[in-house]
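Subgroup meeting minutes
Present: P.N., E.W., G.H.
Scribe: E.W.

1. P.N. recapped why we're keeping a running log of single-chain structure predictions: easier to compare across weeks, and new members can see raw inputs and outputs side by side.
2. G.H. added today's entry (441 aa).
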Amino acid sequence: MDYRSAFRCVAGCEGSYDVEQVIYHCPKCGELLEVRHDLDALKQRSPAGWTRLFDERKSTNRWPYASGVWGKKEWVMPQLDDDCVVSLHEGGTNLFWAERYGSTLGLSDLWIKLCGNSHTGSFKDLGMTVLVSVVKQMIKHGKPIRSIMCASTGDTSAALAAYCAAAGIPAAVLLPRGKVTTAQLVQPLANGALVCALDTDFDGCMSIVQRLAKEEGVYLANSMNSLRLEGQKTVAIEIVQQFDWEVPDWVIIPGGNLGNVSALGAGFDLMLSLGLISKKPRICVAQAQAANPLFLAYKQGYETYAAITAGATEASAIRIGNPVSIRRAIRTLQRYEGVVEQASESELAEAAAAADRTGTFACPHTGVALAALVKLVNRGEITKKDRVVVVSTASGLKFTDFKVRYHEDRIEGVSSQLPNKPMHLPNEYETVKRALFSALG
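Output recorded in log:
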């Protein structure tokens, strides 16, 4: 079957554009584009046929289907040549049953989708494998692309640098100086990317990279490029597949630039269109209170939207005041009975710490989503019978300084409720024994 995909305007303007064309906005109305698939062709295979195919690929090592993204290649980028796929075995991340943490909230069916268990430690790998693979095919077909560039709060730059290094394509990243963790900064440096640390915030970096993307030979890798969202939508498909093709009642996801929200909706939309599922989950987008433009718009019924200047937050990857995908995110939330919540610095830190006490190692952005979960449970929107999935977007290992400062009670504005400091003891058996047994009770 000749499956195809193409760019189309998200606002519904007529016309389609080749995915190998360097284009990010609709030429007619200026809106962002999205990737659309030939549903008539995809419907030639039955829902049972698709689930059987995808389940078979979960355990294969056959290139490129071992990847959680490329195992769904027909739904992602069907016309891509297999020899142009740039994969680091992304996706296929585990769905952790948060039994102990859920019990503290009165929930027995709480799960955390650990997207940070990926090559560069975040969900950004899911989108970057698609974008860099398409660029590799564009170069193969003669497109004069000199570099792929992005603005980043850390994780996007890490993913771009790794996948470009694997593909042999130059990468350049713009970061806000002093606003990313050391672990995030060292990743693109180690992978050989050209790193520019600018005296601004993410929105300032984004403004410059959008202008650079108009230059000949520069390709934009931020989420306004919908190739990224094609890979990220597989999170929704994986979640349903991991529940034996059943849909959870709620999905809670942190929101910054908001491309991941619309990607999540796109995954569910495609499964609905092809008959693999028959119901929708409700979606909650969780924002840091210091960077909450979507939350403010939600509280106004989406009647108005205004960019803000994002304030300092431990959830640095979602410190974005002018998200490029906000209109796409709003459309998704309206289709999925969506809600938007926010979390203060204290709320996100305490939620992450409480979850950690039950076996997780939550990044601060996952802490934002967990804090939103607590609020939804407390006001009865999420009930004890609901199956809930919290999307964890990055590895906590990228944010060890956040963890250390929490346990040393050094996060500004936060009075740590669950600190756990090491006991400093002399090298004396009896002293160590007394201290241990006294602490154990």
